[in-house]
Amino acid sequence: MRDDPSVIRLVERARDGDQHAWNELVVRYAPLVWSVCNRYQLNRTDIDDVGQTVWLLLVEQLGNLRVSAALPGWLATTTQRECLRVLRAARRYDLTSSPEDSPVSPDQADALIEEEILAAELNAALRAAFADLPGRCRQLLSMLLSDPPLSYTEISATLSVPIGSIGPQRGRCLERLRRSPYLATFSDHEIVGGETHDTRTSDAGGGQRA
Amino acid sequence: MPEVGSVPESWADDDQLFAALKEAVRAARAVPPEFVEAGKSAYAWRNIDAELASLTYDSTRDLVPSVRAETASIRALTFTSAHLIIELEVSGESLHGQVVPAGEGTIEIQTREGVAATVGVDSLGWFPIHPIPASPFRLRYHTSDGTDVLTGWITL
Q1: Are strands A189-192 and B105-111 parallel, antiparallel or unpaired?
Q2: Searching chain A, which residue's CA lies closest to the CA of residue B154?
Q3: Taking CB atoms and an 8 Å cut-off, how many pairs form between chains A and B?
Q4: What is the pLDDT at residue B79?
Q5: Are B112 and B131 within 8 A, CB to CB?
Q6: Among the ranges A62-66, B72-76, B82-86, which has the highest mean pLDDT value?
Q7: Alpha helices of A132-151 — where are they, by DSSP H?
Q8: Which residues of B20-44 are buried (b: 16+ CB within 10 A; e: fewer)?
Q9: Distance CA B129, CA B132 (A)
Q10: N or C: which end of chain A has fewer CB atoms below 10 A?
């Protein structure tokens, strides 16, 4: 797993009693836990149950260096295991479904989980980089990111800038985002579960969700 | 500065980078706030001052599939700490356990909400738990001579 100093620092601070660091870890990786649960088509109650279990297990594992060095991978595989457990338990009471009825085959699951881990890391890094931008850039990009996006006319009026400057400002802000140290911490290879994976083989923003 | 590595090469393009940022923001917004808050509150469970017993055997995990199929209604779990072992067996609606080495004491059943119940451990180390607690739960074993052991979270 890549050596992300900020994640490791957060884990260390959480281990040492810093609730804010813990909160930041949860905010950063809750989307990963959530997306793995959704892949298994769990209902909301089961998703909440899995989520709670995963975070409780992480609290217990904060002192475990192997976990903190590969946190996204640990979270993804732990979430997957808990989802399967919930599905197994549900099947005990549902005799109409066969044990082979899992929505995701083990091979598919392995491939998907790699994608999900990478997507979650890229997404978390992008959000951290975005949060670290100067206020002006955050404001402009937020307007462009809103759904539906604000028009250049509306943005021009809100920010009191000429319409013609919005395009170039967007470009400058994206360039700052691109140069953010949060996006510079990716190493060329990721080691997940003892194997080496070339991150370049995955397309941008992999882990497409339904 | 950290090592410069490989974010996707396509991010050199403004529109691709913007689309990736949009997806990152969307993925975070898709998560219900209560889900995130529940995760934050799990932190209250850290730093419990007891010896931890970790799961060393789980029949659903460690049995070979052919055996598992025949014994699907029974689940056996073993937690091991530095000084003792806590074994649990679930069959149907009953859950009972044994502490090894045996010693009289109490077992506290903790759920996410706090301590749900306390049961006695007899001189043979046996204890019954009824009803089966809502998952996840964990057990804390106390004796009068100061033994204090806490199992990992149990999900049945």
Answers
A1: unpaired
A2: A53
A3: 155
A4: 92
A5: no
A6: B82-86
A7: 135-145
A8: bbbbbbebbeebeeebbebbbebbe
A9: 6
A10: C
- Domains annotated on chain A, with CATH: 5-132+180-201 (1.10.1740.10)
String of DSSP letters for A87-127? HHHHHHT-TTS-GGG-SS-HHHHHHHHHHHHHHHHHHHHHH
Structure confidence by residue, pLDDT tens digits, B59-73: 876 665 554 445 456
What CA–CA distance (Å, rounded) separates B80 from B100?
10
Whether A188 shows a pLDDT value over 90: the answer reads no
| Cβ atoms B11, B19 nearer than 8 A | no
Do the Cβ atoms of A112 and A209 come closer than 8 Å?
no
Task: For residue A144, list chain B residues with Cβ-Cβ distance below 8 A.
Answer: 18
Q: Closest Cα of chain A to B123: distance in Å? A: 31
Mutation target vs A (from B31, B62, B113; most A CBs, 10 A cutoff): B31
Alpha-carbon Rg for chain B, nearest whole angstrom, is 22
ipTM of the complex: 0.78
Supply B66's token pair: 């052919």
| A26, A34, A122 member nearest B7 (Cβ) | A122
If you measure CA to CA, which chain A residue comes closest to B4? Answer: A184
